[in-house]
Design a protein that fits this description.
Blueprint lengths: L25 H11 L7 E4 L6 H8 L4 E6 L2 H14 L3 E5 L2 H7 L5 E6 L8 H10 L3 E12 L11 E9 L2 E8 L2
Parallel strand pairs: 1-2, 1-4, 2-3, 4-5
Antiparallel strand pairs: 5-7, 6-7
Length: 180
C-alpha cells in the first residue's frame, strides 16, 4: 500500500497483516481522488473506518489541512499511528467506533467524509442519516461510500444529493454532495 500523489507520493504505508481490514485498491483510490478534484486547497477529512489510515493520509498528501482517522481496532490504531508518524502528517487518530465518532464530531463540518465499513455491518443508511441531520458536510464537500454492489443505500435525504455511483467488480463507490 502506498500514497499515490502529492507531497507524500510513493511513500509506503503499513497495513494490518490479517483479514480484519480491506485496503482500498490503488485503482479505486486513484479514481476517487480524480473525481474529487485530484488536489485540495485545504480542508478537513473524516475517515470513519480508517484501517491503515490510507484514505485520510492520501487526502493530506493531496492538500487537505487535517485528517481525523477513526477505527475501533487496537491493531488498526497502532498501524495508523505508525503511518502518521512516518509521514509526519497532521492527522488526529481516535480509537472509537463510528457511533462515538459521529457523536463526538456532530457539531463540526467536513470537506470529505469517507465511509468504508466492514461490509457485513450494513450501517451506511444510519451514518448518512446522522450526517444529514447534523449537517456535518460542508457546502462543497463530498461523502464517499465504498460498499458491495448489492448494498441498498437510501438516496432520500434532506440535505444530501447522490451524484454518482461507479462499480469496481463486486464493490461500488458512491459520491454524495450537499444540496446547494
Amino acid at each position: 500500500m502506498r500514497i499515490i500523489a502529492g507531497k507524500y507520493r510513493s511513500r509506503n504505508l503499513k497495513t494490518l497483516k490479517s483479514n480484519a481490514t480491506r485496503p482500498t485498491l490503488d485503482k479505486v483510490k486513484e479514481a476517487v481522488f480524480s473525481k474529487l478534484g485530484t488536489y485540495f486547497d485545504g480542508g478537513v477529512c473524516l475517515d470513519l473506518f480508517s484501517g491503515s489510515g490510507a484514505i485520510g493520509l492520501e487526502a493530506l498528501s493531496r492538500g487537505m489541512d487535517k485528517a481525523i482517522l477513526v477505527d475501533k481496532s487496537y491493531e488498526a490504531i497502532n498501524i495508523i499511528k505508525e503511518n502518521v508518524k512516518a509521514l509526519e502528517a497532521d492527522a488526529t487518530v481516535f480509537k472509537m467506533d463510528y457511533k462515538a465518532a459521529l457523536n463526538k464530531f456532530q457539531n463540526e463540518q467536513f470537506d470529505l467524509i469517507y465511509i468504508d465499513p466492514p461490509y457485513h455491518l450494513h450501517v451506511y443508511n444510519d451514518i448518512l442519516k446522522f450526517i444529514d441531520e447534523h449537517q456535518m458536510l460542508k457546502e462543497y464537500g463530498y461523502i464517499v461510500c465504498e460498499s458491495l454492489n448489492e448494498e441498498e443505500i437510501n438516496k432520500e435525504y434532506q440535505e444530501l444529493v447522490f451524484e454518482k455511483e461507479v462499480s469496481y467488480g463486486i464493490m461500488k463507490v458512491i459520491y454524495i454532495r450537499r444540496k446547494k
